[in-house]
Amino acid sequence: MSLEDRAEDLASDLGVDKEEVERDLRNLVEYSVPMDEAVQSLRRKYGDDSGGGGGGPTAADIGDITPESGNVTVTARILTVGKRSIRYQGDDMVIHEGELADETGKISYTAWEDFGLDAGDSVTIGNASVREFDGRPELNFGESSSVEAAPEPVEAPYEVGGDSDLADLEAGDRGRNVDAQVVEVERKTIDGRDGMTDILSGVLGDESARLPFTDWDPHPELEQEGNSVRIEDAYVREFRGVPSVNVSRFSTVTDLDEAVAVGGPTRMTLRDAVGQGGAYDVEVVGNIIEVRDGSGLIQRCPECGRVTQKGQCRTHGEVDGEDDLRVKAILDDGTDTVTVVLDRDLTEEIYGGTIEDALEQARDAMDQTVVGEDIADTVVGHEYRVRGHLSVDDYGANLEALEFDRSDENAADRATALLQEVDA
After folding, report:
1. Please, what is the Cα angle at 189 between 183 and 192, to 5 degrees?
2. How far is residue 260 from each of residues 60, 208, 213, 248, 263, measured CA to CA in Å?
3. How far is C-alpha 295 from the chain's CA centre?
4. What does the DSSP assignment read for 78-103?
5. Which residues pair with 33 in a beta bridge?
6. Rounded distance, CA 164 to CA 366, Å?
7. Tell me: the pLDDT tens digits for 74-90?
8. How far apart are CA 234 and CA 170, in angstroms?
């Protein structure tokens, strides 16, 4: 049933103006309040707490819940608990979120009220609604739900608590705790929901991985590069195809007495990195099979930084472009291909000259494509070790290079290892 139909039925049931009900219902849904919970909220607003509809929720095992399950009652163990603030109709609203489980499976949840949940609690949650979030079912419960202690402890084959290595984090995780070192950090000013707001943005590292992070309520412990910290109650979003650690005003950040060791890049095949939707600080080895058009000497829009074509920016129209150097090359490691993107510094290294040298070469030839052609002559057909951040979108896979070096590995040994992996 569409939102408009739900609003019409609700307005008819309550005897109030349909347009007002539809406006309120749309606002609630747009701020991620589940439809059933939004309907119940409007019933309470307009003085009808009957709930409407037919029979009550169905008791369900977590492993059997799907996005189409409707309203359910579950008995489960709380694995993690986190807090986050959202804004609804100009007011800040605190939600509680995490994961819960029984012996059949686990599921993410959002509690729209504070039910005093703690990790390890065994509870029975009545009249919880199910919605789809990131392609998976999510349990939602609020004022129209009940939360009571379970009659006996719930056994679940999952670890209680949010302690995690960076490599184990996934987009959608909530209430996570990590010990990590601040590898990179910078303070930025953004136009946020409260106007111009300072945030911290950077990279965290431990022995297992490095991941980007954003601190939406800057904690001083995260402003010092090299500082080792414990972060409690972080949530994880996807950023360019990889997990990104998000720290909020509800997060706790404390200094650690012992330094957290930071591992190097994760060596992966392109098949694995692309197959998992992206990888942060990854290292791959492969052959450059092509340098794409638009490499070498280019011009960028001074407003947005996009590459211009014949003096035209697709966003800002005719502009006086600023000169730059880049390379977009196709790398093949035998399992898949990716477009490797080199910035000006890395491009100057393989070109063997500066942007001024490239401009002079282009003027002498009266053709700026000669710069890209020279770069192609240098790299195509050779094997390179590339370290960087790999992302996947609708246009394919891209690897933003941090390091780009000729490989000194034994190609025969690597081919043998690759064949063994394929056979396995």
Report:
1. 115
2. 42, 11, 16, 22, 10
3. 29
4. EEEEEEEEEEETTEEEEEEEEEEEET
5. none
6. 57
7. 999 999 999 988 876 66
8. 12
217: amino acid identity, one letter? D
Tell me the residue length of the chain.
424
In 3D space, the residue among 414, 400, 389 whose CA is nearest the CA of residue 287 turns out to be: 414
For residue 263, give the nearest of 214, 303, 211 by alpha carbon: 211
The secondary structure of 146-206, three-state, reads EEEECCCCCCCCCCCCCECCHHHCCCCCCCEEEEEEEEEEEEEEEEECCEEEEEEEEEEEC
Following DSSP, what letter does each residue of 329-393 receive, concatenated? EEEE-SS-EEEEEE-HHHHHHHHTS-HHHHHHHHHHHT-THHHHHHHHHHHTT-EEEEEEEEEEE
Closest by CA to 115, choosing from 138, 98, 102, is: 98
Any residues with CB less than 8 A from the CB of 365 and at least 6 apart, and which?
Answer: none
Backbone φ/ψ region at 397: left (φ over 0), alpha (ψ -120 to 50), beta: beta
Rg of the chain over all Cα atoms, to the nearest angstrom: 27
Residue-wise pLDDT tens digits, 104-145: 999 999 999 999 999 999 999 999 999 888 788 999 999 889
CA-to-CA distance for 300 and 324, rounded, in angstroms?
7
**Under DSSP, is residue 413 helix (H, G, I), strand (E, B) or coil?**
helix
Q: How far apart are CA 30 and CA 8, in angstroms?
A: 18
Residue 233 and residue 246 in contact, taking contact as beta carbons nearer than 8 Å: no
pTM: 0.71
> How many angstroms separate the CA atoms of 244 and 264, rounded?
18
Question: What are phi and psi for residue 261, nearest 5 degrees?
Answer: -70, 140
Query: Which two structure tokens, joined as six digits, stand for 224?
Result: 């010092």
